[in-house]
Amino acid sequence: MNKYLLLPALLVFNLYALSPTSVGVLTKIIQTVEYKAVETENWGNAKLGSVVYDGDEVRTGSRSLALLKFLDNSLIRVRENSIVTIYGSKEDNKLNKNTFIERGRVGFEITDQGDDEFKFTTPTGVASIRGTKGFFEVPLDGSMLIFVKEGIVDIESLIGTKASGSVGAGKFAKIDLSGELVIEDAGSEYENQFQAMEKETVKKIRIKLNNGEEFLLEYLD
Amino acid sequence: MKKILFLLFISAKLIFVSAQPYQINLQVSSFSEGDFAPFIFSNDLSGAPRIFAVTISPEQGEVKVRGEIYWKKDADSGFDWLLTFRTRVFQARSFFNTDLGNTIQLGRGETNSSLIDENRRRGRPSGEYRLDIYLLDANDQQLAFDSKTYEFSNPAQTLSIILPQPGSIENIGGVHAEWTELNGIQYYEIKANVRESAAQSLEDALDSGSPVIDNVPVGVLNSIDLRTILSREWTPGQEIVFRVAALLVGGTPSDMIESNIVNFYLDDPANPFQEETTENINQLLQSLYDGLGSNLLDRLLSGNLQITDISWEETGLNLSPQEIQDLLNYLRQHPDNILNIEQD
Do the Cβ atoms of A143 and A175 come closer than 8 Å? Predict the structure, then answer.
């Protein structure tokens, strides 16, 4: 009798195990944000509240923004003209996350990871994060820049000398195409950029001209 | 015998006249709120235009009239007594309300002062008014009665400032102020003051220190150049708060209707806001790498167009000069945070 009761439970368990790992949810979409599920070839318009699974991709158009909230409440802000791939893998009770930034700018607010792992990877480097804030920038040439606002990030070059180091709060690190790693104090310019990246509320102002024409300006605040 | 017959004839006629039943017909004229306001607010029966007419027939004998006005303020309330007027004895004839107190002498009357005040506070006649007219003989015995009800469907009037618009930039040399016109007004009164900081509420700013316009009566016109009634000079860059109050006919200063308080800013003629803002937005648009806002830029570069107002889309309120400056600084620093600029 007991084994008949167990059958449905086992079936549900197996289906759960077969389904892809959900990693996060798109909590904000501003202007052009596209999404590609790992098992498909085509990009489609992203929808607010879409669940992002292991291997899914998100890309943003000009002057666009996507906010992705992970299951552990970590947050990334995918700014304009960016492409990211979100990976998540379960290992025992841990959910290890890796965000591959192909290009663009991505702000991050990562919660304390405990035993979990949260990594960012770019064409030239990889960064391990354990609860911190900052942003990445990956220009078209594939080099990598990271600014750390709070906490510490361990960074490692994936090419050339495969240099590594730790980037503390108020510093920025750059890995160029040869794999060289430079860590320096960040100036107010990076601080300003970080503050600007945190803005996610859309505001509108109406501009009136003396010929009666009117224009709407939308911005993030 | 002739004398007896004559006396009988006269007596019969007198009996016939006194026995003939009187009829009274009350007609309420077509009138405006403005006509009715002084009638109801100040109990000025003769001072108001023709509001009602009373036809009495036959126009024979001596009669008196008692009139009672009742007010139903809204659908949920009943008719409450507002006022009573009484004439002295007069030779029966038809009359208008304008005759009362003139050709027909008025006697003792009473009013419900709290309801009259409530009417006055509303600023204009509102709700339903019922006029009961009693035709009486010299001994106050009722001879006839008629009643009419008149309904005002309009809500209580409010006093609102039309110009300047909240947060607008005004030329220090002349600030055109305009407000909604009320009925039954004795005069409007203006108060304006300098707002020293954004932390100060508009009301506190208006009531603090020495006002730049200190409750100056401006008659019954609903517009004025504020510059012409300044108590003391104002200076460029100042934020001014401004309010209008209206004294209704028959009212007292304690129950004046007050407008909303509006704030505006004084422009510096040496550094006009419009030119400066237009130039700043020009520069901002030219710095955008992707040509966003090129439509607007083209207009501004044409040379003869300027920005007159910048307002928050959500509230419709104009941005203050400081807010515009702060916003432009922010957008110059973070042009990537501009999402879109398009003609609307």
Answer: yes
Query: Does residue A186 carry a pLDDT above 50?
Result: yes
Print burial letters for B183-219: b (CB count within 10 Å at least 16), e (below 16).
Answer: bbbbebbbbbbbbeeeebebeebbeeeebbbeebebe
- Residue A10 forms part of a structural domain: no
Contact B278, B306 (CB under 8 A): yes
Chain B residue numbers with beta carbons less than 8 Å from the beta carbon of A188 are none
Q: Provide CATH code, domain B20-152.
A: 2.60.40.2550
DSSP A158: S
Selection from B191, B197, B193, B189 nearest residue B210 by Cα: B193
State the total domains in chain A: 1
Per residue in B155-214, pLDDT (tens digit) is 555 788 999 988 888 888 889 999 998 877 889 999 999 998 878 889 999 999 899 999
Euclidean distance between CA atoms A87 and A102, whole angstroms: 13
Q: Give the ipTM.
A: 0.82
Question: Is A105 within the bounds of a domain?
Answer: yes
Report which of B31, B63, B202, B247 is spatially closest to residue B139, judged by C-alpha positions. Answer: B63
- Say whether B334 and A216 touch across the interface (CB within 8 A): no
- Contact residues, chain A, for B342 at CB < 8 Å: 215-216
Q: Inspect the interface and report whether the beta carbons of B305 and A203 lie closer than 8 Å.
A: no
The answer as to whether A26 is a domain residue is: yes
Given this model, what pLDDT does residue B297 score?
A: 86
pLDDT bin (cut points 50, 70, 90) of residue B227 is very high
Q: Is the CATH number 2.40.50.220 carried by domain B161-267?
A: no
Provide the residue count of chain A. 221
Range of the domain at A192: 16-220
Q: Given B292, B313, B327, which is nearest A206 (Cβ)?
A: B313
- CA distance to A205, A208, B125, B308, per residue, from B312 (Å): 5, 11, 37, 14
